[in-house]
Amino acid sequence: MCGCVHSTQDQVRCLEGEPNPSAAPTSTLAPRKMPKRISVSKQLASIKALRKGSDLEKAIATAALIFRNSSDLDGKLGKTTAKNLLRTQFRNFTEGQETKPRYKDLLSELDEHTENKLDFEDFMILLLSITVMSDLLQDIWSVKVRQ
């Protein structure tokens, strides 16, 4: 778990792999330095079933790990955390989309989400929706495949 529940700044730091200063141990018996969070690539490498997994399986597993590492104790993402993930982990798909009506609609739907939190299914739907409307997808489709 990410453990970032305080400020947006703390959340961004944690998403970028920096330790969360507000989550410092309070007990004198606890170690003074919190261990660094394990990188997603190391987490993926530790999953035996993915060692010979396809690129697509690894991509979905990566999304699942990033979601899990950023989610709260209930396994859900707050709206702010979800938006930070889009900006930090999905920026090549979101850059240049800010002025497009479909992108604005997706973000406003996120803001109107009744629970104020996203579960994994909602998060994946959001990622797929942004992917489908992104300019980067058009660039991907135009790549010539070697035969």
Question: Which key phrases capture this entry?
Answer:
two-stranded antiparallel ribbon, single chain, 2 strands, Recoverin, domain 1, mainly alpha, disordered N terminus, 147 residues, 3% strand
Characterization of this structure:
- The protein has helices at residues 8-15, 40-45, 55-70, 79-89, 91-94, 101-112, 120-133, 135-141, and strands at residues 77-78, 117-118.
- Residues 1-35 have low confidence and may be disordered.
- The protein has a two-stranded antiparallel ribbon.
- The longest helix has 16 residues, at 55-70.
- The protein is mainly α and 147 residues long.
- The protein has a domain at 75-147: Recoverin, domain 1, CATH 1.10.238.
- One of its GO terms (molecular function) is transition metal ion binding.
- This is Sentan, cilia apical structure protein.
- Residues 56-95 form the S100/CaBP-9k-type calcium binding subdomain domain.
- InterPro entries: EF-hand-dom_pair, S-100_dom, S100_Ca-bd_sub.
